[in-house]
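Replying to the earlier thread about multi-chain prediction with a worked example.

Input:
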Amino acid sequence: MNNSVKIAVFLALSYVAVPLALGSNTYVIGLIVAALTIAGIAVAWALLGNLGGMVSFGHAAFFGVGAYVSALLTLRGGWPVFPAMLMAGVGAAIASVATMPALRLRGPYFALAILAYAEIFRILATELKPVTGGAAGLLSIPRLPNVLGLDFGSKLGGYFVILTIVVAAMAAYHLIRRSAYGLALKAMHDSEDATRVVGVNSIVLKAWMLMVSAFITGMVGAFNAHYINFLEPDYAFAGQWTMLAIVSAIFGGYRTVSGPLAGALVVYLVDQLAFKPILPQGHQIVLGVLLGAMILFNPGGMMSMLTAKFLRKEASHAA
Amino acid sequence: MSKSTLCVSAVALSLMLGLAPADAAELKIGAEIPLSGNLARVGSAMNEGIQVAAEMFNKKNGKHTVKVLVVDDESSPAKAVGAVEKLAADGVIAYTGGYGSNIIGPASEAAEKLGKVYITSGGVASELTKRGLKTFFRINSSEGYARALMGMFSEVGIKSVAVVYSTKEATEEVAKMLQTGLGAKGVKVTMHAFDPATNDFKPIVHKIKLQDRPEAIAMIGYENDYVGILRAAKVLKPDIKTIAGVWSLATSKMAAEFPDLMENVSGTSTLSYPAVFTTPEAKEFAETYQKMFNKAPDYLGIFGYVQSKLLFDAVARAADAGTIDKGGVASELRKTKTESVIGKVSFDEAGDNPEFTHRMGQHQAGKVELVWPLEAATGKMKYPALPW
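Result:
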């Protein structure tokens, strides 16, 4: 099956088959929306990790900034929701500029520096009480709107919005990877010094990747704020947004475009639909074990495992 | 028995079974509640009260029975919304439960979108009842907590208080009420806000000890905050006469889990522990609770019981009137005007209970004695008295 057929099947399944099959089950659609929210951050995280070569522990910073920008623009500024969500992405990208001094750091030092930024943004959101409402947070954030008879504030409407954000993020990831910038970034992975010698400005490239990643995460944060209509610093900047995204990306395979999405869907849906009913408390432990097993036995993640199996099967058919 | 008799009997039986549901029905109620995460302790206690309410309703009502479906919200706002939606998919008529204003907020908005009633006692932020929701109800409010704490301080003649409060909405609201209320009575009040993520309270307690030198410390936070403040105070030993707080403090769980920290600490409570019950309903509640959970109830269980009982009664009345799908549950709840185990309950247009007033309990030798108001007291307040 070639790539364009695969993409067409994926789009048909997600935009037509899933709504037709599950549209009436608001609970399952709600779970899929939650999984796609994590998938959005996971794609952004994987883009930064795979293309930029930077492991971030602080994507919650961009998620929170995006959520607050959009919530405040709509609540206090009277902006329509969709333009406010776009501005949320821009706001998160601008916030990422503040984290750019950390680009000089590598490996765990960069990861920890970004984690510190997430904490700084959380404290700022708590302390800027006249603007953000402080620790009390913001209630009754405007829901997603009704456009041309399509109610995006409904469960199914929310599904289409977050699905579109995730698909767009995956497309951006794919296009960047295929471009000359992607080649330069790949070369940077092998040897950053050698790449710089041949004239590639690695700091600028990394900065762009950070901004793109922050933009996507900010959009996802904004979506979440309008979807659950609530925000507080502890929730908006919670470490869970980063941790779940990392777990999903690694589980699915962060070096593939579809891995973070597949990982998020499996990790979240299996946990909520299969493990939680069996183990109402402590169900997360099963996921922990599965993730450990995946890292130990197949570090490339679920998608690389499935692709390898598929290729083996095709090779045996060809033989 | 002949074949024809058997046939007639079978038809009669099937007709009876077929007719029965028109009158009596199993009413599904959802409980969205934290059973894991940082609110698990209080959530479990409230859930026990909910289960007791269901047991007592099913035993008494005769016509209807309720089935409570419980989903753990994992102390997370997003999971609480998911829990509300899951319960709706399972066919519940209304919701009871919730703890923490930040979780109740989005969960009750999700319930409103579904057109289902949400009743709670776990969130007292005034913002919750200012949202104009038609399906939100609660049996308590922040004023009741502040009134009780101020009443106890006035009773023992406290002249200066250091208020240590979390910057969350509900806690900050109660702290500001204390500042205004105590200040109006000529009490010197110093305020110490802390971030909800704080877990080292020694700097604040140190400042109180050396700078404020109050007669009392008032803690307005949640369980982990109380434990942190009390641990810091036990180390630094400020020269105070009493230390008190609000919700989730004067409970049997805190007494059992932190016996070294709780002695002589006061908190809001509707009940002593082990509880002394006087009314027939309260006695029956205590007996059922003891039977189901092999222990005496505490006030969180009582709140869970009262909110659920009121909801079950309203749902049953709406079922009788055939108005469940027409907003009947909310209308029936609004008609509620009753004397409950926690005192008078009625609901205003916003869903608040304006009649709510709390009491104060003090940890004394592993028990919780009600010490304020005097007419409800089960023991004498130990004053001055501290956990160290």
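Strands of chain A lie at 138-139, 146-147, 150-151, 230-231.

Feel free to reuse this layout for your own posts.
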